[in-house]
Amino acid sequence: MNWFTKLLTSTLGRKLMMALTGLFLILFLVVHLIGNLQLLKHDGGEAFNVYAKFMTSNPLIKTVSYVNYACILIHIIWALLLTMHNRKARGSEGYAVSKNSSAWTSRNMGILGTFILIFLVIHLQGFWAKMHWGNIPVKVYDGQEVKDLYAVVAFAYSNILWVAIYVFSMLVLAFHLWHGFASTFQTLGLNHLKYNQPIRFVGRAFSIIVPVLFAIIPIVMYLTTPH
Amino acid sequence: MKITLKIWRQKNNTSKGAFKVYQHEHVSEDMSFLEMLDVLNNELVVKGEEPVAFDHDCREGICGMCSLYINGRPHGPQQTTTCQLHMRTFKDGETIVVEPWRAKAFPVVKDLVVDRTAFDRIQQAGGYVSVNTGGVPDGNAIPIPKKVADEAMDAAQCIGCGACVAACKNASAMLFTSAKISQLALLPQGQAERKERAEKMVAQMDAEGFGACTNTGACEAECPKGISLTNIARMNREYFMATLTSYEVQAKGDGA
Q1: What CATH number labels A3-88+104-224?
Q2: Per-residue pLDDT averaged across B169-175, rounded?
Q3: Which of B99, B215, B249 sits opposite A96 (nearest CB)?
Q4: Which chain A residues are within 8 Å of B229, Cβ to Cβ?
Q5: Domain B3-110 is classified in which CATH homologous superfamily?
Q6: Test mutation, B165, B216, B228, chain A, max A CBs within 10 A
Q7: What ipTM was estimated for this complex?
Q8: Fewer CB near the last or first residue (10 Å), C or N of chain A?
């Protein structure tokens, strides 16, 4: 086997792919969050709509978004490959009694990830697909026609069911990140007594702050829309 | 004290095993777990039954031969080897479930004995330092900082018992392999074969069918020798750097 394919397909290599794509997705979350927080600006959605237009038309952003789609796909496919390999390695006969001392999140990344994938499908279908191909009302800012994605979002978040789905999904994401963030560094071999504590702290802070901020948006929008 | 034992009995690798329950009336709390099994086996032999097969050798906690998954944990409730586990750890009248290590790469030979030669093959793939014969080198001729020597020694504590594989939900051998790679990668003597070693040992580990690491830390929690997860990170580092920068290594994972 060629050294490069070996690097990507060995057990360590597969974990490397998980870590690298995971790290990219963590960065993506930050960018996505900064954009989303503009929903809370009291300007009838102007800032958000202009931002949404920019994100779907700027060539550089478009290129990065393709990398992002690729990362999501690789993260899912490699997770499946690893899970199947790991199940096989465990063998057919299980333990009758097992007291595992490891953290719950670390043992259930696959289940958490599956929930996130389901959320992702709902989420992309609801907003992303509508923004790209849907029939969305148009607003005019400074003589420029901009799709009013804000209206779509505001309409969705006036429904308590959608708000509940989003808040629950962010809770799942928080658990996924709780293990995932620090785990990427361990997998990449970036483990050092000087940095282990800071990495763990930043990871835990990130896995709380980011999902909470994401979840606050639908809650606030639900509470502020007249019913 | 009196205990009830629920022990996995399996005739050989091809037959299907099952639990068998034994009432053990003659247990002293000063016995080690293996001595308790010795007494049970004596009674079974007297009764004309087949004694329970289990692995053991030095009974001093340093050979790595004893195994046993006791009450849901490798080597039982304490972070020690089974031979160093004493019956005072258990309560009078307790039911103790004893199972073999479970992993595809550790097939059951008989009862509680599993075949751990996969570890030997990983070790043979590169877990050594080639030394030329000749005069004895001077002691202290190669300076090694104390901290580094300590870290290498900590990794070298691994006795290859396989508790890490048994504890891991993926039956991953990464704690073992990483300890073996680390102990030599840290020392000057290990530098010549450093990259080749990492590539070959990881290839062998994969070829044996062990799982990948999910960084759950279950192995570290159960290791009787306190091998730390830091070693796995080091192995990842060693492997990635080796694969990216070494001369092409023929790592076929066939024990060579």
Answers
A1: 1.20.1300.10
A2: 97
A3: B99
A4: 186, 191
A5: Beta-grasp domain (3.10.20.30)
A6: B216
A7: 0.91
A8: C
